[in-house]
Amino acid sequence: MVKVDNTITNYIICIINRIYNNSIINRMGLKNLGGVKMKNILLEKGQELHEKLCEISDYIYKNPELGNKEYKAVEVLTSFLKEHNFEIEKELLGIETAFRAIYDSKKEGPTIGYLCEYDALPLIGHGCGHNMIGSMSAGAGVILSKVIDKVGGRIIVYGTPAEETNGAKVIFAEEGVFDELDAAMMVHPGDKTLASGKSMALYPLQ
Question: pLDDT for 71-103, tens place per residue?
């Protein structure tokens, strides 16, 4: 079993730190909220949502679904996002268990994407922690939405099914879905907490 407890919040903090320390923060204007104060606001929102995110992660873990059949996972994730005022588009590109959830500040600014995975492995279940990836990415999007109205931009949370097989991300990329983004983010849980790791690809942000 993948241990949840504080791990989800810690990974969301990791994503927030990536935004906070990245040059894209200047484009989003988040420093205008007061630097460390802004970061603390995001962390506080993460703590407030911690129990709910663990609940979602546990639900997906206990209801494993194979690629392109992740109906329960999609329902619980999109319901959570809808509760926080994201506009939901299901069956993205005609893929039954793919979705796009958008929170638009209606102000000029960059578009930040978070990628949810939620498929399980045959005979194993969620051995790769995709139950956590789904809840973490949805949670990070919701947390960022709590400040983006003040600074501008859009948040898009993508539901990317079948990561273990044909991979909806590949189809999304081929069809230009990600062309609307300034940055895309996700994290993957592991059995150790590490400060950093090697990257298989690098694209500089100016």
Answer: 999 999 999 999 999 999 999 999 999 999 999
DSSP string covering 94-128: G-TT-EEEEEE-SSS--EEEEEE----BTTTBSTT
Cβ atoms of 26 and 36 closer than 8 Å:
no
The amino acid at residue 51 is: E
Torsion of CA 42, 49, 137, 153, to 10 degrees: -40
The pLDDT tens digits of the residues spanning 165-188 come to 999 999 999 999 999 998 888 888
82-90: long-range pairs with CB below 8 Å, 24+: 84/142, 84/145, 85/145, 86/141, 86/142, 86/145, 86/155, 86/157
- Rounded to 5 degrees, φ, ψ at 178 are -80, -5
How many secondary structure helices (H) and strands (E) does the chain include?
6, 5
Give the chain's end-to-end CA distance (angstroms, integer): 40
**Paired sense of beta strands 87-90 and 154-159, if any:** unpaired
